[in-house]
Amino acid sequence: MVFLPDESRSLPPPPLLNKGSVWLGFAGWMSALLDNAFNHRPIFGAGIHRQVLLATLGCVVGYHLVKRAEYVHAKVDRELCEYIRQHPEDFRRSTGKKRIGQLLEDFQPVR
Amino acid sequence: ARPFPALPAPSRPLRPPRAPGSPPFTRSAFVVKKANNAQPNWLRVGLAFGTSAALWALLIKQHHEDVAEYERRKARAHQCRQCS
Questions:
Q1: Closest-CA residue in chain B for A56?
Q2: Of the candidates A10, A56, A67, which has its C-beta nearest B55's C-beta?
Q3: Which of residues 2-61 of A touch B (CB under 8 A)?
Q4: What is the crossing angle of helices A19-38 and A48-86, to 10°?
Q5: Nearest-CA distance B44 → chain A (Å)
Q6: Is the ipTM of this complex over 0.90?
Q7: CB under 8 Å to B37, separation ≥6 — which residues?
Q8: For bias kind Pro residues, which ranges apply (chain B) (predicted)?
Q9: Which residue from A3, A83, B11, B47 puts its CA 20 to 30 A from B33's CA?
């Protein structure tokens, strides 16, 4: 089971800073700050190397996860569109748009 | 007030009460060292920054390669269909 199959490279790649990489980078930075807090160190000023490393790791993991997610979504869309294309009889547009008044039952006031 | 009576001295060294048949007391393998935050481990700091720089370089390179590959495949697909 390949993480990113070759056909995923035919998709437009997500931007470097996408929702996954930013969020996981932020989570990595937060975990470095938490580590500072638990070890009674200054929260922001201590362990800059740790904060940078964990934020970087989060960005890298987030970027690749978003690439995989976009590939899975594209694959599902492709299969869905292919199914619709092969079964047109199930997806016919109903002739004549129905008004909502025709679909609802008649109003019977209850007093 | 009457003086509190002293406990009799034990005739043998005290050992923690243990159920019969339990394993003998062993020393723990985990040792706690007091962390010294005043003297940073510069090797570890350098390695962390170096690894971060390398990871960013790899990530940016990977992104450029992905963009180039996508453009290449898009151009090839358009070429096949001969649309403008």
A1: B52
A2: A56
A3: 9-13, 16, 39, 41, 46, 49-50, 52-53, 56-57, 59-60
A4: 150
A5: 9
A6: no
A7: A41, A46
A8: 1-23
A9: B47
